[in-house]
Specification:
- The protein has 378 residues and is an alpha+beta fold.
- It has 18 helices and 10 strands.
- The strands form 4 sheets. Strands 1-2-7-4 form a 4-stranded antiparallel beta sheet, sandwiched between helices. Strands 3-10 form a two-stranded parallel ribbon.
- Strand 5 and strand 6 (158-159) form a beta hairpin.
- The longest helix has 19 residues, at 105-123.
- The termini are far apart.
């Protein structure tokens, strides 16, 4: 069987199973990416969520010794929703980033890669295959860039000409020697809109991200959010879309091709106050199918509390006081104290003073003292 014929058949089949773009590249070492990752490590710009060593992340044959090629896939997702719920004073809402709309994209892409793998195995019975989505060692973006799926933008996203950067990426290592596609020319030019718009200055320079400052990363952490970022998180509960929203390549890009990736408005833009009281079970039942739930309830609830402080939502004071007094989690109690300080009512101030007398966690005490000081200063 000719490789060219097989490759064309795979491309045609991919379209029938919901893969919007597909590209092929070699299993050669990602030399440039290796240097970039070493630099990121030296500068301590990594998020800590990365899997594997630098060698495993850049040398495909460490993951599959027989590998000769990598197939890169992209699945487009929506950037807008119909009938977007509007938050109002007294009934504020948070927002999940677009990458968490619909079902967990890991599930959606794995299903497609599994089907693609089955098809390839039928055509080439001795094919060896290893698939990955996001949580694998390889960099999805580096693979997609070299496979010609899109170019790597200054915001570190892969940008496709057809769908902008609103695409999920996955890849498949195989021992089949496919003909590699050519990388796409860079399309950013002199544009620095994403760098200028980043709320925290996380995009250090074109193509370099300090994950420790990136709101998308910060919303997923479980500890206290550093104070300098609390006023910048706004009402984001998971992720951040700013650098994608402002990108000229994303103007007019809104792909509604896959029903399972469509957003449920009440889930992706949920009411804040009810989320304060969700049990673990309720959280999993309601949000468990979304990728934004992967870190569990705690970081989401912390972000809900910070969002209420951001809005200075007076109607949430009683709820926040109850949380500050009774929640067993120091991060949640301390975050509630910060938000009460931001809201700044007399009731909040009195509650902070009383709670401080009984609090025995040093970090929570610090948050309470800071909140009281800020209220006194104002």
């Amino acid at each position: 069987m000719k490789i060219e014929e097989l490759q064309k058949d795979i491309q045609a089949y991919a379209k029938t199973i919901g893969i919007d773009k597909i590209g092929f590249t070699t299993a050669d070492i990602f030399t440039e990416m290796k240097e970039r990752l070493r630099r990121q490590q030296e500068l301590q710009y990594q998020s800590g969520f990365e899997k594997g060593s630098i060698e495993e992340r850049t040398e495909p044959q460490r993951l599959l010794p027989e590998s000769k090629s990598i197939i890169s896939i992209a699945v487009a997702y929506p950037s807008r929703m119909e009938k977007t719920p509007r938050g109002t004073k007294g009934d504020r809402r948070g927002i999940f980033a677009r990458a968490s709309w619909g079902i967990d994209y890991h599930v959606a892409l794995r299903e497609r890669l599994d089907k693609l793998g089955e098809y390839i195995k039928k055509r080439v019975p001795d094919a060896v295959i290893k698939s990955m989505v996001d949580t694998g060692e390889l960099s999805d973006r580096a693979v997609a860039e070299r496979a010609g799926v899109g170019f790597s933008g200054k915001n570190t996203s892969i940008i496709t000409k057809e769908y902008g950067s609103f695409v999920y990426l996955g890849e498949m290592l195989t021992n089949i020697p496919f003909i590699p596609d050519s990388p796409i020319e860079d399309g950013c030019g002199d544009c620095t809109i994403c760098l200028d718009a980043c709320p925290t200055g996380a995009i250090v320079q074109g193509g370099q991200l300090n994950a420790q400052r990136c709101i998308a990363f910060l919303t997923q952490t479980k500890d206290f959010l550093p104070e300098e970022f609390r006023t910048k998180i706004g009402n984001r509960l998971y992720g951040c879309d700013t650098c994608q929203q402002v990108c000229p390549w994303n103007r007019g890009k809104d792909s509604h091709f896959h029903k399972e990736l469509e957003p449920e408005p009440e889930l992706v833009k949920p009411r804040l106050k009810p989320m304060l009281h969700l049990s673990n079970r309720e959280f999993k039942e309601k949000f468990g199918h979304m990728s934004g739930s992967w870190r569990g309830k705690k970081p989401i609830q912390r972000n809900v509390i910070l969002a209420l402080g951001h809005y200075k939502e007076v109607t949430a004071v009683e709820d926040l006081i109850a949380i500050m007094k009774n929640d067993p989690r120091p991060v949640i109690r301390g975050s509630a104290a910060w938000s009460l300080g931001k809201i700044g009512t007399d009731v909040a101030k009195e509650a902070l003073s009383h709670a401080l007398e009984k609090e025995d966690d040093e970090q929570v005490q610090y948050e309470m003292e800071n909140a009281l000081f800020a209220m006194t200063a104002n």
